[in-house]
Design a protein that fits this description.
DNA-binding; Rossmann fold
Length: 781
Amino acid sequence: MTIVAFAEKNKAAEEIANILGKGNYKRTSVEGIAVYRFQRDGKDWAVTGLAGHIMNYDFPAEYNSWTGVPPGDLLDISPIKLVTKENFAFVIERLAKEAEEIILACDYDREGENIGFEAKELAERIAKVPIKRARYSTFSQKEIEEAFDNPGEPDAALAMAAETRQILDLKMGAAFTRYVTLSVREKAFTKEILSIGPCQTPTCGFVYEREKAIREFKPKDFWKITADFDADGNIFTGTHRAGHIPEKEKADEIMARIKGEKTALVDKKTIREQSLAPPFPLNTTEFLKRASAFLNISPEKSLEIAEQLYLSGLTSYPRTETNKYADDFDFKVILADLAKNKDYTTAVSQIVSAPAGIKSKNGPKDAKDHPPIHPIKGASKETVEAMIKLPGAYVVYDLICRHFLANLMPAAVFEKTKLEMKIKEELFDAAGSIKKFSGWLDIYDFETKNDKFLPDISEGDTTGVKKILNTASKTAPPKKLTEAELLTLMDKNGIGTKATAPTHIETNKKRGYFEAKGKTLSILNTGYMLMESLDDSVPIVIRPKIRAQVEELIQQVEDGKITMNEAVSTGTELIKKMYADLTENKDKLVTKLSGSIKTEAAETDKKNYIGVCPACQNALRIVTTDNGRFVGCVGYPDCSQTYSLPKTGAITVQRTKNCPKGGAAVLDVGKKYEWAVGIGPCFNCDQNVTCNPPEVVGSCPRCKEGEMQLIEYKDGRFLKCTLSCGHTQSLPNKGRMTVLDQKCEICGWNLFRVKEQGKDALEFCANRRCKAIGMRKEKTE
DNA sequence: GCAAGGTC
């Protein structure tokens, strides 16, 4: 008989076997899954690692049909739990047969308890043996031994808390997703799924809120007064104390008081040292934020790289909330190894030779899960790239190493100088900053902090005033949300976990709700329309509150205050209420979303795409029917915006031209003329001369007042006076003709250049009344 | 086909 233990993952199982077996264990394999066997106190032990959850909730098969089951019905039925990783289930059953006792040894948290219960459920189908729980937070000899010497009882409440989340998330996600997707498909053809979820939707909500703030932003005027001071040729700038002045009169008053002043007084000078502490050790969220901000790598990719670095033994486990090292953390071995990389040698020797010893600047979070992300081994760029074939592998490794080193280095020190300058009675502020001691910044050069110098002057000194400026300006709209900011918002609001935040961001990208351009996120039309309609109908869904409410129910289950069933039914009621709000506003939702989907389709149909509908912001495109053609909105029938088009002639939409009168687009009709959508033919327009300036070559030799204009038509070309004197002149009809910038020295007309195929190009004056006529210059190409 | 959470 054997004592069987289940850990959350293989790596943990091996650690446990190593510690409990005192380095003496045997690795066996069942169904390709490692089982570690060893002896302890005369007993046989078997430890295996699962792979996170091995079961998952789903609806019974008869509810799989999206069209056959009204989505709302999903809220009234109970999902069932099914095994998703059969090979692990097999190993659990196999080990249960030989077990005299089972110890659940997954991570010490809510999901870990739940994963243990999955193993428990499968094992209990096979054998009735005592099932215990080993609780540990680190893989130290002492903690592991204690955890397995005195295992406790499994915590059903904790495990059921996770179960509550699983059921409520599935119900809400499935019902909402099916409903929105199917409703939109009634009006617009799309194979895409429009998903809604308790984490992904608030995540999109953050991007939407920022975008909305940008779109609704109204810039405000302000004035700013600055002065350039001259201290013995050293020029520095100060800003008037009033800062941003919203009223022009006020700024003008100040200017009037100091106009023409040539000297200023150094009224006050303060110098203080400011130290900048190194960053806390890296936890997952902080790591993802920095990788995005410094390296421009998406959270999803960063986590994937960190996972590979971890599996290759280069860095530690990448999923942790902790940003504090344990008291007995061994920095020395790692530091010695890091010195192998020449980029780190100097920093390492600084750290190990510090008189006060090696000291970490620890953060406040100790989630008792894993140590902060840190390097395990020092490696060169070539080594890392040879081990991990992912773009960005080395820069991510380098970031982790530099962060680790920076954290152990002394604070940087800056000297901050403030000058209060007085021009008459008006106060101006100037600030300077000089790095006195670089400390950790030596190794961590991701954020550059440039020095800003001020001249060496003292209180009571006077300086010259070179110029005083009153600059009119406008307040700037908020900036687009960055991926790093989004991660912060998610973390603060409890949306997702350290390990899932990147997935939620990725889901939104995959659904076409928002996209990343470099570090910044931009909402896409579908995402904006979805959020806007949800904001109108079920605003709670796009805000973090929805997660918080479910989280509170879960917490009550965890605390044993309510049962899982009670929590599920309360939670389901909450979802039903939201679902009712959603269905009540179906029309609005569908109109906006189907319009946005059709707009995307129209935008890719370049030939017929016209532009944005002024009435509804969807797409305008050319519609051709048996009765002719016109420009219509994809939002039809909800939007009936239309424009007529000329009845004949091939139409080409000009992408480079905008109609100054506000036509929706400018079209070429045949090769004959232009037409502005919503305005009409360009030749009837008073703006035509501005839009299509005639090409003139010189003054009219007959009336002397008009200019000779080049007229080109299908069958030929000639010159015609722009005034009504009626003078015309023919031009050679063969070859490609261009009017040159160069002028005829005799008559002042622009020279012409004609190139016939197979012949040399000719440049000449075309003026029949010019004395230069006939003096054609040959030009070889 | 739908969620979010583990882990690979």
